[in-house]
Amino acid sequence: MGELYGSAIDEVRRRTGSLAQVASVDASVRTDGPDAGTRRLRLIAGELEVELLPDRGLDLGQVRHRGVPLAWVSPTGWPRPGAGGFGASFGGGLVTTCGLLSFGPPSIDAEGEHPQHGRYSGLAASVTRADVSDDAVVVEATIVEATVLGAHLELRRRVRLPFGEGRIELRDEIVNRGSRPVEPMVLYHVNLGWPVVDAGSVLRSLAERVSARDAAAEAGLGSWAEFPEPAAHYPEQVFVHELPAERRVAAEVMSRAGLGIRISFDTTVLPGMFQWRVAQEGAVVLGVEPATAATILGRADARRRGLLRELAPGASWRLGLDIGVIRNGSMT
Prior knowledge:
The protein is mainly beta.
């Protein structure tokens, strides 16, 4: 049984008129602006508040702990799906899922045309559960990516906020509902912003080797671990982290003030991890991106290097992340 504000749930129930006083799920629909008509779910589990985006595959928008924002939010926000390409609709948020068939640059193959980072963030979820249990706030949903006579993938997502832990559990199961094998590609784009990310913030990685994606990243490769002072112009940099195989790992981002985020996952199913860094005024963001394939150069490169894994009809994969808040060197 979990805790809220340092008290066991049974004690909380004795002292509140309703558990909704300290833990709840609230649904709403935006009524104005470019995201008008889209759904939101607001989850509160004591000191942790999470915004979920059902019309973007139940991805995570802004997340706050003790009122402090943790995620980077882009100037586009989250407009209705179909409002331009990835660059015109990438709202950031704590987690943007890329896939389910491709991530990285656009590509074309036997499965058809794949836009930048895939179609997932434009898919609407069917929410099947949203409630407060005895020890957590839980939301579950189903998301389908399918084409006529093509791939048919179903993702079952579960987002759970255990009481008293300052932690988000994101669990996905991908099922091949089609009649032929498919090769999914999935990347979790975890986007951290100010005040977690600022000059002097440090990324701690278990990478055995870190390399640069391109010349822009090569210029900052020697200082990949420490976030630089923001500048008026700062080209985005992407670094490739080669992780230990088939084990549970964690990446941590820590600010100078002692506020941090720990992202943990299993390299058996998520063997790749990439770091996205922009230290530009108006766009201070650090992305930590676990992925099912250890390439950020797209589906064609993954196929060429033998990094795609086949998912048989009726078979499934289980993926996921834990994202926890660190304060003064310890998990909350």
